[in-house]
Amino acid sequence: MKDSRYTETICRDFCNYFKDGKEELKCGGYEFLMEHLTLKELVRLSDEICTKESLKISVPADNQDLFDRVCGRCDFMIDGCDYRDGVAAPPCGGYILINELIRR
Questions:
Q1: FRET pair for 33, CA 20 to 30 Å: which of 3, 6, 70, 80?
Q2: Total domains present in the chain
Q3: Is the full-model pTM beyond 0.85?
């Protein structure tokens, strides 16, 4: 089950795919961020990089290590991932936040 505080920051604020009612499904980025960042650290990062509207920045889609470690455990991968497959689609919120951590 998702933690509503993490969901607000990762999903609602950064993920273009977020829909209410999917509380039992988590992307790999969500899992990773919950395991490695406290809520306080996550909120600080979120506040520093703004919201999904201002994050139309280039997020590299060629980070195979990130795909292997994070996306491989994603509940949504059963349907595939347009972003990862090179289709003109934005990454999920978890990927955006983790990529920002790596960039920093």
A1: 80
A2: 1
A3: no
Task: Report which secondary-structure segment, H or E, holds 67.
Answer: helix 64-69
Which H/E stretch holds residue 41? Answer: helix 39-49
Among 31, 32, 27, 2, CA closest to 15: 27
Q: What is the mean pLDDT of residues 74-86?
A: 82
Share of the chain above pLDDT 70, in %: 86
**Reduced to 3 states, what is the DSSP secondary structure of residue 9?**
helix
Show the tokens assigned to 28. 């790999």
Q: Which domain holds residue 24?
A: 4-103
Which contacts (CB < 8 Å, 24+ apart) does range 33-41 have?
33/6, 33/94, 33/97, 33/98, 34/3, 34/6, 39/3, 39/5, 39/6, 39/9
pLDDT, tens digit (0-9, with 9 covering 90-100), for 33-62: 999 999 999 998 888 876 555 555 556 666
The token duo for 14 is 């950064």
Which residue type, as a one-letter code, is found at position 48? E
